[in-house]
Write a structure and sequence with these properties.
- The chain is mainly α.
- The protein has one domain.
- It is about 75% helix and about 0% strand.
- Helix 2 runs antiparallel to helix 3 and helix 3 runs antiparallel to helix 4.
- It starts with 5 loop residues before the first helix and ends in an 8-residue tail after the last helix.
- The C terminus is likely disordered.
- Keywords: Membrane, Transmembrane, Transmembrane helix.
Length: about 130
Amino acid sequence: MTSSTPALRVMRILSTLVLLVTGGIHLFLVFDGVGGVLGILFVLNAVSALVLAVGVTFLRGRLLQAATVLALLFLIATLGSLLLALTVGLFGIREVWTFTLVPQTIVVESIGIVILAVTAALVLRVPTMTRR
């Protein structure tokens, strides 16, 4: 899809914002004292979120489709990792609800998944006019 509708533009902006907020939360946690392997993973998360946000904002055509789907999968994996850490543990790390920004992260990433799912649907939808 090469044309950009107003709805798609708005959803791309919202997708970019939610990716930047998610990356910002993880970077804040690193500066707040999370270290070791988890700190490295959080820095990688922040960098990935930034790269995906730039992709969702500036790419067009098939690359935009790929970036949007990857961003959606990224947020699903990020939220899934946090939920696993809260329940059964992940890589030997067990998280608690009272840790810094855990409830806010759950809310932001859940909303982000919905926003990116809508954006992906708009980007991937098949044009209604067929070529002859």
